[in-house]
TrEMBL record:
EC number annotated for this UniProt entry: 1.-.-.-
Native species: Nocardioides abyssi
GO molecular function terms noted in the UniProt entry: oxidoreductase activity
Sorted UniProt keywords: NADP, Oxidoreductase
Protein's name in the database: NADP-dependent oxidoreductase
């Protein structure tokens, strides 16, 4: 089966078309024909060997990718679902070795797969699962109340943009960062206040909220540089495992999408919000899968707004 992966870890040039075995379909699982796979920053560090398995055979490819959209092919035993073969679906994938999204079909837990939002293309649907679930999980962990103030760094990115829109739907006041060229975009996503982005964004947030904001979703991965923006007793969600510096009374949550990867209820809720217009599905470009290295280069260069998506048809 055709996939895009790496035999030797490295830069974007290490990505290549590879042949991987079709995965067996077991109890509680479904098979999805993949037509679109979004390209995320996590994919680049998988490509570089971040999740390297020392027991992986040298001739077995490591396949990146955490978002897919396509068609449901098969439903395994012991699966309770209203989906049928042929239905358009989207899913979140937790990569492990050859088990990644950049492949022609993939077997997944049934809880990781839901119907694609009505009226969307596969490329659009593929932008939602991983970043949308991560954003939802971050907000649920912070557990802010309607009317409280949430700051969002990296608000023009996929994770940050979904946090802004979900937070507004939850009734929060949102103050978000943006480069000058992205201010209009971030306002269009629903941010109540926009401040200039940068490593000193905490200072600008404190100017607006002298006591500090109630919560912070740190999509820009500023880590300790962002913490001064948050009031004592406030809460922070991070996306690369950062757990705080321990110097202040803050509740810091390292958010991992794998913890909710089989929460079909959450993913289906995101589908509903995409259909109702609460969430905006942003595709920067669709790239043939054979040019995945090019997509990784563009992502690394920065400035991509929305998700690059690989076409696996």
């Amino acid at each position: 089966m055709r996939a895009i992966g790496v035999i030797e870890y490295g830069g974007p040039e290490a990505l290549r078309e590879v042949d991987v075995p079709q995965q067996p379909l077991g109890p509680g699982q479904v098979r999805v024909r993949v037509t679109a796979a979004a390209v995320n920053p996590t994919d680049t560090i998988v490509r570089e060997g971040w999740r390297h398995d020392a027991d992986r055979s040298a001739d077995v490819a490591d396949v990146p990718g955490m978002d897919v959209a396509g068609e449901l092919l098969e439903v395994g035993p012991d699966v309770a679902t209203d989906l049928s073969p042929g239905d358009p679906v989207m899913a979140v994938v937790v990569p492990q070795g050859a088990h990644g999204a950049y492949r022609e079909d993939v077997v997944l837990p049934a809880g990781s797969v839901v119907r694609a939002p009505a009226g969307t293309t596969p490329a659009e649907a593929a932008t939602l699962p991983m970043n949308g679930l991560t954003a939802r999980h971050a907000l649920d962990l912070m557990a802010l109340e309607p009317g409280q103030v949430l700051a969002v760094t990296g608000a023009a990115g996929a994770f940050g943009g979904y946090v802004v829109q979900l937070a507004k739907a939850d009734g929060l006041t949102v103050v978000a960062d943006a480069a000058e060229k992205d201010e209009e975009l971030v306002r269009s996503l629903g941010a109540d206040v926009v401040v200039r982005r940068g490593e000193d964004v905490a200072d600008r947030l404190r100017e607006l909220y002298p006591d500090g904001v109630d919560g912070l979703a740190d999509g820009a991965v500023l880590d300790d540089k962002a913490l001064p923006a948050v009031k004592d007793g406030g809460t922070v969600a991070t996306v690369r495992g950062y757990q705080g510096d321990g110097r202040r009374d803050l509740r810091v949550h390292a958010v991992w999408v794998r913890d909710v990867a089989e929460r079909a209820d959450l993913l289906d809720g995101l589908r509903e919000q995409a259909e109702s217009g609460v969430l905006t599905l942003r595709v920067a470009d669709v790239v043939p899968a054979a040019r995945a290295g090019e997509a990784h280069e563009r992502l690394a260069a920065g400035g991509v707004r929305g998700r690059l998506v690989l076409d696996l048809t």
